[in-house]
Specification:
Elements lengths: L1 H17 L5 H6 L6 H19 L3 H21 L4 H10 L2
Helix pairs in contact: 1-4, 3-4
The chain binds phosphoribosyl ATP.
The site of phosphoribosyl ATP (PRT) has 10 residues, from helix 1, helix 2 and helix 4.
């Protein structure tokens, strides 16, 4: 699981660096709304996750959770943070 997150974060960092035209990730880094584009996505998807949880729709819960994690990693990259910032914060809570 951690490899999946690490690999995804590496791809996000690559898109941030190279900004390919056909990349959704790159479009978030260059969006005219700036960071608000990714913040709005996080808000929308969190609402969708809440609705899926209320409906006990397990497939949708997994789908929306993955959308949230992806956009959260984009936000971390946007802030020049990385997975270690997240790992450290979680580790301190143990
Ligand atoms: N994990 C993701 C990922 N999760 C979500 N998304 C995109 O995020 C957007 C979500 O916006 P929306 O909720 O409006 O989309 P939607 O499908 O209508 O929404 P739902 O109804 O599904 O919730 C969609 O365009 C998805 O394609 C993602 N886009 C990219 N990735 C990863 O990033 C990698 C690089 O992608 P590119 O940057 O596009 O090359 C990919 O290989 C993936 O691993």
């Amino acid at each position: 699981m951690d490899d999946v997150l690490g690999d995804l974060f590496d791809v996000i960092e690559d898109r941030k660096e190279t900004l390919p035209e056909d990349s959704y990730t790159a479009s978030l880094f260059t969006h005219e709304k700036g960071q608000n584009a990714v913040l709005e996505k996080l808000g929308e998807e969190t609402t969708e996750l809440v609705l899926a949880a209320k409906d006990d729709d397990y497939q949708e819960i997994a789908h929306e959770s993955a959308d949230i994690v992806y956009h959260l990693l984009v936000l971390l990259a946007m802030k020049d943070m990385d997975l270690d910032d997240l790992r450290s914060e979680l580790a301190e809570r143990r």
